[in-house]
Amino acid sequence: MSSDLPHLSTPRLLLRALEKNQAETLFVLANGPKIADNTASIPSPYTLEIALDFIDGMQAKYRSTGLLSLGMHRRDNGELIGIVSLRINAAHRYGHLGGWVAADARNQGYAAEAATALMDYGFVELGLHRVGSQCFSRNKESARVMEKIGLQYEGCMRGAFLKNGVHEDLLVFATVREVWEYRV
To answer: What is the pTM of this model?
Structure first.
């Protein structure tokens, strides 16, 4: 695995590391509706300091923990519209997909486009065997994206995550390399 963050492109997106001058934009977007509520690790409120720390640590986290996080940028104007990530467990050749899209860019296929590109990178470049993800059972939009990109529903882990004092059910989705390679 290369220790440098990749630059990936799709028909409508550029996926790349964030730059310090994007901290204010990240701060605004991450405080948008449903971001912290629907994700496991984004704090609320999301401060400018947190945004700067995230940007400063992207490369180091990839090198030390295998957390590959990239900004989703529109190809036409470079606008940051979200984050996509793949947490890599090299010992098991497994990747855990995550991410979020800003409120004004939702329901336009960006999440699926970015996730597909990152999964391709994981299977082809990183040699992963399996990629999966989870979402809260109440987050129908994320579940729909996972199914759209070819992850198969594997089950529900009841009460598996404590979020804001409430035990949430997690829906589990995944695919393996052989299935990914032969998708339509």
So the answer is: 0.94
